[in-house]
Design a protein that fits this description.
Rossmann fold, 23% strand, globular, 9 strands, six-stranded mixed beta sheet
């Protein structure tokens, strides 16, 4: 009975996108994106630059509104489910001009937590240490972030996300600008986070050996080219659809003219 219950929990839909459409002004960034991700899954989100990976993450994190369709997290709209999601954006989108210690960066993940306030400094310090210990960087707690390697900096950002105790981790280009050894370290860390029951989505350009690393893959090229088991959905046709020109597909697509409508 317990095994069956655990399997049901693992198969319970956590993120459901139904015809999700997102626009920047009159331009379509994502159109008719549909998928369902169950709890505890490790999902690669792949596609070309401009294909909508970061846009989707921003929508899941509640930072971008939908133009059409629906996106639900545990049955809630993203802006209602913000406490369930931790988002690690691309490193080059973060302003690193400030002289911050590693502990300061991790503490940023706690600034919106009501349980941490001016009277709980001990709790904050414990949470920072626990999060850094989980990513193997407790010894760098007082180090200036500018002295870290690319792989170490990525782990600090993951520690900041872990400090939020969210159910879902969104990692945007977690493997970019780090060497192969650091990529393997980060992947091992992601595996341990996933085994801890968290659902992890990683945006990546690398489609090599995805079937060995991820449970599912979401292929984006401003629409959903495919979603499912990497060993099944990463066909030649899907790869061509992802990385071929996508301008033709959207030449007649303009504001309020979507592929699928549910208004009737």
């Amino acid at each position: 009975m317990n095994v069956t219950r655990e399997m049901n929990i693992k198969n319970k839909p956590l993120i459901i996108s139904d015809g999700c459409c997102i626009q920047y002004g009159d331009s379509s960034a994502l159109d008719d994106v549909t998928f369902s991700i169950s709890e505890g899954k490790k999902v690669a989100v792949v596609g070309p630059n401009g294909g909508g990976k970061s846009t989707l993450f921003n929508a899941i994190a509640g930072l971008l509104p939908l133009a059409h369709g629906s996106l639900k997290i545990k049955g809630m709209d993203p802006h209602e489910a913000k406490g369930l999601v931790s988002y690690v954006p691309q490193k080059d989108l973060i302003n690193w001009n400030f002289s911050l210690a590693v502990k300061d960066v991790v503490e940023m993940g706690l600034t919106n937590k009501n349980s941490f306030n001016l009277f709980s400094r001990k709790k904050i310090n414990e949470k920072i240490k626990d999060s850094l210990n989980n990513v193997g960087l407790l010894h760098k707690v007082n180090e200036n972030i500018n002295n870290l390697s690319g792989g170490q900096l990525q782990r600090v950002l993951i520690a900041r996300a872990l400090a939020q105790n969210a159910d879902i981790l969104l990692l945007d280009e977690a493997f970019s600008a780090v060497d192969v050894g650091a990529q393997e370290d980060i992947m091992q860390l992601i595996n341990s986070i996933n085994l801890d029951g968290k659902t992890v989505l990683i945006a990546t350009h690398d489609i090599n050996n995805l079937e060995e690393k991820f449970d599912e893959v979401l292929c984006l090229n401003r629409h959903c080219c495919a979603f499912g088991d990497p060993s099944e959905v990463l066909t030649e046709e899907v790869i061509q659809e992802m990385y071929g020109s996508h301008n033709e597909m959207f030449k007649n697509h303009f504001k309020n003219n979507h592929r699928v409508t549910n208004d009737n």
